[in-house]
Amino acid sequence: MQNSTLKTDGNRCFSALKVFVFVAMVFGGNAVYAEKVLKLGTSGFEGMPVGDAIAQVLIPTVARVSNGEMRVEAHYRNTLCGEQKCGEQANQGLLQLWTSSTANFGSFGTALAIFDLPYLFKSIKDADQVAKGWLSDAQCKVAAETTDHICFVVYSSGGFRQMGNTVRPVHVPADMKGIKWRVTKSPIEYTLIKNWGAVPVPYDWAQLYQGLQTGVVEGQYVAIPWQQVTKLHEVAKYYTNVGGMWSGNQIAMDLSQYNALSAQEKAWVQQASAAYGDAVREIDQKWVQDGVDIIKKSVKEWYVPSEDEMVLWREGAVDAWKNAKGTYDPELAERALAEQGLDGFIATLKRAGAL
């Protein structure tokens, strides 16, 4: 009888201990579930649209929709890796999410190359509408099929590049003749500047302000917010709103790691990424407009070409399209142009064999 009582008391104590351990795990410092952490590498930072949208929308949305079971750990300002390196580190399992320009995504394939075609988009509003919808969906699907990454959304970071120079007003491409224009290593940019009549000069971004001051270079083709942040408008006093090259960006995840997620976890990531894309587009539009307003106040001219003049600017982009042929689906490109009413540019590209 005594042994039976001891056995019963022992079972009760063991059961109580299990309950205590369970309660401690659930309500104590460590949850019973294993929190899934998605490490994100980005060149963005708080104070610019990409960084703000990550901090204010992506991170809290993941936490909310997952009820705390998933968390995004963001590493800003290239502290973890540069854009291309972040993609490589994602493939190595060192991080999960990463952001980059659509151009730098090109290190892994041509799936997003279509977004870098000059004059694919007529305006920031058109770019946001098309990139947010079917075109982003189509190209991110191609990315998942042809690269080791799945991109979730494509969005703007700085709008379009715009022309600024220290020499004279520029209204049509012929006005650029002989001006020494700073270019990056982008073949598309080099082709544009050359076809527009200027002298392309490869020049380091960090030295651009000084280069404009000294006359080593006399013009630049840079997204407006970055011109304003680096105060290039203090030197370059003649601006031309030509658009052309769109500053596309994307957020992606290593494909093998994404495929290892449960269906519910994938839904959390997709939902948060969509919210992030909406937020970054809205913040970016204000960032661009604020830059335009500041620059307009201090320059001698901010010129907006007429539609007839824009035909001349677009003609300078034809060779860039021809050189990029094979990296984009011509049917999708034509659909994007047609939805924006750019039928004349479509005809020009077809005559040149670019579509």
Keywords:
two-stranded parallel ribbon; D-Maltodextrin-Binding Protein, domain 2; 8-stranded mixed β-sheet; alpha/beta; 355 residues
Care to describe what's here?
With 355 residues, the protein is an alpha/beta fold. The chain has a single domain, classed as D-Maltodextrin-Binding Protein, domain 2. It has helices spanning 2-27, 49-65, 83-91, 102-105, 124-132, 134-146, 187-195, 208-214, 224-229, 255-259, 263-298, 307-315, 318-324, 330-339, 343-351; strands spanning 36-41, 70-75, 97-101, 149-165, 180-183, 199-202, 219-223, 238-240, 246-254, 301-303. The strands form 2 sheets. Strands 1, 2, 3, 4, 7, 8, 9 and 10 form an 8-stranded mixed beta sheet that branches. A two-stranded parallel sheet has the order 5-6. The longest helix has 36 residues, at 263-298. The radius of gyration is 26 Å and the shape is globular.
Compact description:
The chain is of the alpha/beta class and 355 residues long.
Record the SSE blueprint.
Elements: H1 2-27, E1 36-41, H2 49-65, E2 70-75, H3 83-91, E3 97-101, H4 102-105, H5 124-132, H6 134-146, E4 149-165, E5 180-183, H7 187-195, E6 199-202, H8 208-214, E7 219-223, H9 224-229, E8 238-240, E9 246-254, H10 255-259, H11 263-298, E10 301-303, H12 307-315, H13 318-324, H14 330-339, H15 343-351
Parallel strand pairs: 1-2, 1-3, 5-6, 8-10
Antiparallel strand pairs: 3-9, 4-7, 4-8, 4-9
